[in-house]
Amino acid sequence: MKLMTPILAATTALTAPAIANAAEITLDTQLQNYGGERAYLAYYLTDADGTYVRHLWIASGKSRWWQHLRNWYAATDGAASEIAGLSGASVGSGRSLKVTVEVEDALINAGYQIHVDTAVEHMADVADDVVVPLDQASAGQTVSGRGFIASFTFDM
Amino acid sequence: MFRALHRWAGLAAALLLIIVSLTGVILSFFPLLSADRTGARLDAGALVAAVQENVQGAQQIRVDDNGVVTVSAFGDTGFQQLRIDPASGDVLGPVQSGGLELWFENLHRNLFLSDTGQMAVLIASVAMVALMLSGFALAARRLGGWRKLFARDRGEGAGGLHLKIARIAGLGLIVSAFTGVWMGLATLGLIPDPSPMAPFPSEISTQTTSPADELAGLTAIPGDTLRSVNLPSQGMSGQAYEVETDAGAGFVDPVTGEMLSWADRSGWSRAMDVIHLLHTGQGASLLGLLLGLMALSVPVLSGSGLLIWLGGRSRQGKRLPNTPAEAADVILLVGSEGGTTWRFAHAFARSLSDVGKTTHLAEMNDFTPAQYKRAQSIVLFAATYGDGDAPESAREFLEALADMETPPAAPLSVLGFGDSTFPAFCAYADTVTRAAEAKGWALLLDTHHVDRQAPRDFAKWGTEFAAASGFALGDVSTALTRRPTRSLTLVSKKLYGETAQAPTAVLRFALPKQTLLGRLMKRDFTAFEAGDLLNVIPEGDDSPRSYSLASGSKDGFVEICVRKAPGGLASGQLCALNPGDTIAAYTTPNAQFHAPEGDAPLVLIGAGAGIGALAGMIRGNTRKRETHLFFGMRSRAGGIPFEIEFEDWADNGQLSDLVLALSRSETPRYVQHALQDEVAKLRDLIRRGAHVMICGGRDMGDGVRAVFEDILAPLGLSVRHLEEEGRYAVDVF
After folding, report:
1. Confidence (pTM)
2. Which chain A residues are within 8 Å of B60, Cβ to Cβ?
3. Chain B residues close to A71, C-beta within 8 Å
4. What is the complex's ipTM, to 2 decimals?
5. What is the DSSP string of A63-123?
6. C or N: which end of chain B has fewer Cβ atoms within 10 Å?
7. Is B75 in the A-facing interface, judged by CB distances under 8 Å?
C-alpha cells in the first residue's frame, strides 16, 4: 500500500480530530430496501490507482464483522488508529445515513476517490459498492451503488 | 468441593440453561431440514459461468455449511437472493427467509438482549461445562471409580433419575456447552476467528475476460470445498474473482485464470470450523440432531437436581444450637455424602439435649482432637461411599487421625451407615474404627451398623451407647424427624396359621386418594411396586416398622402380609385391626427387590410372611412369564396365605408351579430341602437365565444361599456371580 505523503501524515497526527486547512464533506447515502439485517458501511479514500489513503467513516456494529467490508478491511486491518472515532451505528434496510467528515484540502480535486464497501449479514459483501472521484465536478451528483446502496451523494 | 460446585453452578444457571438447551433442541432440527445433499457438484468455474449466465447482476455466490448454494444479485429489480442448484447452476427460486430459525437463534445466543444476553449465556455455558465435569467426578465417586462410571446404579427417585440421564446425555452436553463457550468467546473477540484474507493483487489483467469455466484457478476448486466467490461487476475490467474455499482464500485473474494471490486458512479458523460443525450440526445434521436431543435432558436434570437439593435440606430437620468444641459434653462428628446421616446426628443431639448433655456437631473433616477438653464421649456417624470410600464430609478425617499425637481422653464410639445390598456395607466405618484402635484410642463400644436408615438399628445402638456411657437416653430413634405419613383404611383382613396367638395376616388397605398434582409430583403412594416397603408407625411408638408390599399402586390397593410376633407391638396392632380402622404409614422404595424386567424365568422363594412380596409379583405377572414359587410354611392347618389366588394364577398361567414345604408335618422339611429336591430343574432354569428372588427370615435366606452355592458350583457359577448380574435378590428381615 502506498502511504500518505509524510507532510499530510504529520498534519493529521498533530491536529486530529480538527484538521487545519480542511473542508467539511457531507456523505449522504440511501440504502435499497433489501429487507435484511442492518447494513455495515465503510467510507474511505484511495488515490487514482485504488491505493488506500485514508479512512472517512464506518457505520457498523461489532468489529468482529468488519472483515466483511472487504477492501476497506484488507487495507486497514480494522486498526483502531485508522478509525480514531470516525464511526457510527449500522444502517437498516431502506434507511439513509448522512454524516459530515473533514478532508484535507490537499486531497480534493487531486485525483483521489471516495469508496464505499457494504456488507449485510446472511446476504452479501459488496466491495466498492460506490466509487466516485473526490472533485468539484462530482460533488452534488447522485450516483447509484452496485450493491446495497440505492443512491449516494457528497457535498462540500 | 465438587458437590458444592455442582450445586451452586446448577442453581445459578438452571433457568438460563433450560432456555438455551430447549432452543438448541429446536435449532438442531433445521440443518436436517435444509441440508443440500447433492452429490455431483459443479466445480467453481462451471458454477460461476452458469450463475453469470442465469442471474443478471450476480455479485456473490455463497455455499453455506449445509451445502446450500445461494447467489446475491443487484440487478435491475434491485437486490435479490436466489438459491442455485449445485449440480447444474440453475436457479431454484428465491431464498426462503429463515425468520423462524433466526428468531430461535437470537434467543439461543443472546436472549434478544444483545451483548448483555450473550455474556449471560456464555457464563451459563461455562457453568454447564463445570456442572458436567463436577457431575461426572461425583458420579465416578459414587459408583466406585472412573472405570465404573457406566456401571448399574440402584438409585431411586430424583437422584437415580438424575444420575441415569446425566450419564447418557452428559457427554453430548459437554460437547455442546464447550463448543458454545468457544463460539461465544469468538463472538466477543476473545478467541481469534480470522477469515483467510489474501493480499490484494498488485496486477490484474485488463484485457477481454475469459469465460469463468475456462479459468484454471476456478475450475481447479471442487464444488464441495467452495465457500464463496465474489464476482467482478459485469462489463467492468480489471476486477478479479475473490474465492474462499475450505483451504483458504485467493484472487483469480479474470483473463488468465491464474491464482494471483493466496492465503491459507489459519489454524484458529480450522478449529472454529470443527467447533461450529459440532455445535450447530451444519454439515453433519444427524450428529447435530443427536446432540440436540441430548439437550432435552437439561430441564429434567435441572428439576431432579433441585429436588435432590431440596430433599437434602429438608432431611436435615430442625437444628439445635451447636455447642463449641471446647465446651461440649459430647463431640458428634458426621461423615455424610448426601445429608441423610445428618438426620440421625440431629436426632442423637436432640436425645442428648433431652438428658442435659451439650453436643458439638460437626463434619468429620473438622476433626480437631486437641479442642475436645471437656468431652465425655466422642461419637462418629460415618456413612460409606462407593466401594468403602470416605463420604464427602469425612474425606480428610483419616489423614487428620494419622497426624494426631495422642488420642483424646474421652472414649470413641463409631456408628456406620450404609446399605447391606452393597458389597462394601459400612466398610468406611470399619476402616475408621481400625485406624482409631491402631492409634490407641479406647472404644466405648463395638462399632454398629445402620442398614438403609433403619430406625431399629439406630435405636439398638442407642441403647448400647446409653448403657456404656451411663447417659440415661431413651429410644434415640424417637427423636428422628418423622417422614410424613398417610392414613390407610383397612378394607379386608384374612388370618392364617395353626394358632390364633401367632397368626399370619394378609391385610388390604384402600389406596389413599391422590390429586393430579400429587401424581405428577410422584408423591407417596402414587408409584410403588410389590417388593417396596410399607413403613407403619405403631400407636405408642414413633419408630416405623417396615413390611414388604404385596401389591403395587397399579393394583389399586395396598396389601401387606404380617406375622404376629409374640409381644410385637406393631404386628399385634396390625393383626387386631378391623375393616374401617386406619393406620399411619408411608412407603419407601426398595428397587433391588422389584420383579426384574424381561422374559427370563423367575424363581421365587419365600417363607412365612415373606410370601407377601412374592405373591404381589405373581399378581403383577400379567405377561405370564415362567414363574416358579417355592413356599415354606409351618403347616397347612389354618390355611395358607394367598392359597385361592395361587390356584387362580396357576390356572391362568401367571404361576407355572408351586412347591410347598411344611416344617411341621408328617414329613417335615424347610424350603431349602424343597430346593434340594429340585436341583436338576433349578440348574436348567439358571442356565436359561432365570432370576432368583428370596423373601423371608434371615436364617431362611442363609440356608437358601448355601443350597444355591451347591446348585451353582457344577455350572461354574456362584451366588456372587448371579448377584453381580442382578439375578439373585434377597429381602430378609
Report:
1. 0.57
2. 124-126
3. 200
4. 0.71
5. GGGGGGSHHHHHHHTT-HHHHTT-EE--B-TT-EEEEEEEEEGGGTTTT-EEEEEEEETTT
6. N
7. no
